[in-house]
Amino acid sequence: MKAIRFIGVNKLLEMQEIPIPEIGERDILVRVKAAGICHSDAHYRAGISPVRPVPLTLGHEVAGVVEKIGAQVSNVQVGERVCLHYNISCGDCYHCSTGNDQFCEKVLMLGHYTDGGYAEYISVPARNAIHLPDEIPFEQGATLMCASATAFHALRKSRLKGGETVAIFGAGGLGQSAIQLARAFGALEVYAVDINAEKLNLAAQYGAIPVNGNKVNAVEEIKRLTHGKGVDVAIEMIGLPQTMKQAIQCAGVLARVVIVGLSNKPLEIDTYNELLGNEVELIGSNDHLLQELPLLVEMARRKVLDISRVVTRTVPLDADAINATLDALENFSGDVRTVIVPASNQD
Q1: How far is CA 157 from the centre of its chain?
Q2: CATH number, domain containing residue 46
Q3: I want to staple 142 with a disulfide (CB 3.0 to 4.6 A). Which of 25, 61, 210, 266 is the partner?
Q4: How far is the C-alpha of 70 from the C-alpha of 289, rounded, in Å?
Q5: What is the pLDDT of residue 308?
Q6: In the chain, how many domains are there?
Q7: Is residue 12 located within the same domain as residue 113?
Q8: What pLDDT is stored for residue 252 in this prediction?
Q9: Are residues 7 and 70 in the same domain?
């Protein structure tokens, strides 16, 4: 089968022919219908987050059709539409048994530590398969597994309550989902901070108040809009020290600041004025949980979460097209979401 593979830091991804993966008794083989290109994939290629082993097939946002099932699989059937939870966990360790499977002692993330979905086929444990309703296209189902799921988990970590105000830093794939989910969680106002006018326009259509960082000081503008109080919840989804700092600075009394974006640079905090003085909480949000995904998919099916406009472009399973998309993401100039659609699997 064809697969687009990571071959080393700062090297272009390459198309390679590799065997169709084998499956065990509790595994399934999925014919990939869609694989999202995430900003994290650009981080992997740039070496910000290490990939192993090398070479490796990238791609952790995956949706497709079950092609084959192992002898002990009973939760899915051949021909079923599925999207895939990207953390492969053991199911037996302390963290798995307490529902925190992203911290599994043996966890392997698709497209990071084991072969992912930039390919024609992928093999995963059957428990990683989430039923994808007919109402949700494969391209949108793929993005649910990272962008929307990560946003959902971050909002749960924030303990957002009805009537509170929220600032979302970054209006890309994660941000657009976070805006809608914040409204569904009962946020009174949602402020979307970005420098891309097109993304801010989409955010406004989802009910957010846009704040263009190219035209105003984001912190000052949010303080003005909140009459000097700041927000109750700020979520940073870009991964830049500058926007992380801004998220903290726009926080009000007893606010919670959730950091989602990846960065390899340190974050400096004015300990008293930005943290202790107002008892602001700084919270890290890492991935999401398998148990959160069925509800998230159901919210998308009911259109509580509208993902119809998040995927703005599709590309074939082609190394040049995928590398160009990663280049744009590294420069923070990419589309809201680009999804790979393998032409060979569209019958």
Answers
A1: 15
A2: 3.90.180.10
A3: 61
A4: 24
A5: 87
A6: 2
A7: yes
A8: 98
A9: yes
The band of 146, judged by pLDDT with boundaries at 50, 70 and 90, is confident
Could you tell me if 275 and 314 lie in one domain?
Answer: no
Lateral strand order in the sheet of 189-194 = 209-212, 189-194, 165-169, 231-236, 251-259, 281-284
**CA torsion through residues 108, 114, 119, 125, sign:** negative
Q: Please report, for the domain that includes residue 252, its CATH number.
A: 3.40.50.720
115 and 303 Cβ atoms separated by less than 8 Å? no
Cα dihedral across residues 307, 134, 78, 120: positive or negative:
negative
Do both 158 and 192 map to the same domain? yes
Distance CA 143, CA 326 (A): 16
Mean pLDDT for 36-54 is 92
The verdict on 61 and 10 lying in the same domain is yes
Write down the mean pLDDT value for the chain: 94
**Dihedral angle computed from the Cα positions of residues 209, 214, 216 and 220, in that order, rounded to the nearest 10 degrees:** 80
Please give the Cα distance from 183 to 190 (Å, whole number). Answer: 7
3-state secondary structure of 192: strand
Determine how many CB atoms are found less than 10 A away from the CB of residue 157: 20
Q: Provide the domain limits for residue 228.
A: 150-284
Q: Strand, coil or helix: what is 215?
A: coil
The whole-angstrom separation of Cα 91 and Cα 104 is 8
